[in-house]
Structures are given as structure tokens and as C-alpha cells.
């Protein structure tokens, strides 16, 4: 098999190492300089030979790799075969296999591209679901807030009602105690007045005058009602604390939201409900 050499497309002698973008030709270094000196091409741009193309060239010998060493698992130029691969199993380039690989890779890439196009169409569906999710979650948050405000309002009303009821109970018992204390105070005051009158009469009157005064005082004493009212039993407020052994009320409060169901469900689950 003939061994190819990467030659300059202008002089066809030296190794081509530069590609003119405008002319699309391979130049050696000398021809590149001459090309740039010409007025018509002095503004042309060059780039180095593509790395993939360089990978097919044995830089040591400037020869193209045309053989594959199955023993070493690498490519080799014909010059290498006489130096490093004398006893190796070498074979030439299998163009049929290259064509086969090109077809396989091309078909795979085409298949992946079609699949990707189909998947890309789902982006709009996902974005639509995200928007719907945002609306639904916002609606749930509003319902949670509304439910919470309603419960707080109800709790405030209950607290206010219980407080008023408690105050009425307190005032009723206070009035009962005050009436008892006031009545005892009145009886004590009347008794003290009678006692003062008695001492005055006893100290200042004698004889018939004393007798007459005592008889008059006796009528007032007989009118005095010494009946002392029974002491009222005020008792105590019996508050049945059913939660006194519980550390918190979080579960009790959560139960008030039981009928507000929300969760993330799949499309299939939501269709069956």
C-alpha cells in the first residue's frame, strides 16, 4: 500500500501545515509567506491544521497513519512498521468499516435529535404546569390565611365571651360578699349606738330619771334585730382544664384544618379522583 505524505498544495514538496481560510488550500510555511506578500491575498487569514487532521499524521516522519496495529492497539505509519511493529499484526484502513461507522453514528445522532425535539415540546407543558402549580399553591395559601383569620376571630370572640361571663360571675360573688359585710356593719353600728346611749344614761341619770331613760332605751333595744345573716359561701371558680397535662395545642389546632386538603398529586391520580 502506498504511503501518503501531507504535502503543500502549492509547491507539492514541503509539508502543508497552514490552511488559508479564503482560498481553502493547504500551505507550507514558505508558500504561506509568499501568499501573504501578494497584494491580492495579503489580507487572507490562516489557521493551523485541525487537530483532528494532525492526529492522522506521524509528526516524526511527516507520514500519514495508514495502518492499524492490532497487537499494540494503535495506528502506525509505514515507516514505523520497520522499526517498532516488526512482529505485530498490522492491517490497512478498512474503508468499509469507516462507512459503516459513519452510518451508525449518523443514524444514532439523528435518532437522538428527533427524541430531543419531542422532549423539547414538553417544555411548554412543564412551564404550563408550573404556572398552574403557582396558582393552585397561591389559592391554598389564601385559603389557609382565610381559615386562620376566621379561627383567630372565633377564638377572640370566645375569649371575649368567656371573659365577660367570668367577670359577671366575679361581680355576683363580690356583690354577695359586699351585702353581707355591709349588713354586719350596719348591725354593728346600731349596736354601738345603743351601747353609747346606755353608758350616757348610766353615767348621768339617777333615781326616777334613770329609770325613765332606761325604759325608753329598752324600747329601742327591743326593736333592735340582732339576727346576724349567715355568712355566704362564695365558693371558687371551677375551671375544667382538660389540657393541663398537655404541653402544646399544635395537634388540636391542626385538627381545625383537617377538611382543608392539599398535596402534590400526579396527573393520573388527579384524573381518577
TrEMBL record:
InterPro entries: Znf_B-box (IPR000315)
GO molecular function: zinc ion binding
Key words, A-Z: Coiled coil, Metal-binding, Zinc, Zinc-finger
The organism of origin for this protein: Mytilus edulis
Protein name per Swiss-Prot or TrEMBL: B box-type domain-containing protein
CDD domains, A to Z: Bbox1 (cd19757)
Annotated ranges, domain B box-type: 3-49
Coiled coil: 116-143, 177-204
Highest taxon above the source species: Eukaryota
Keyword Zinc found: yes
Gene3D superfamilies: Classic Zinc Finger
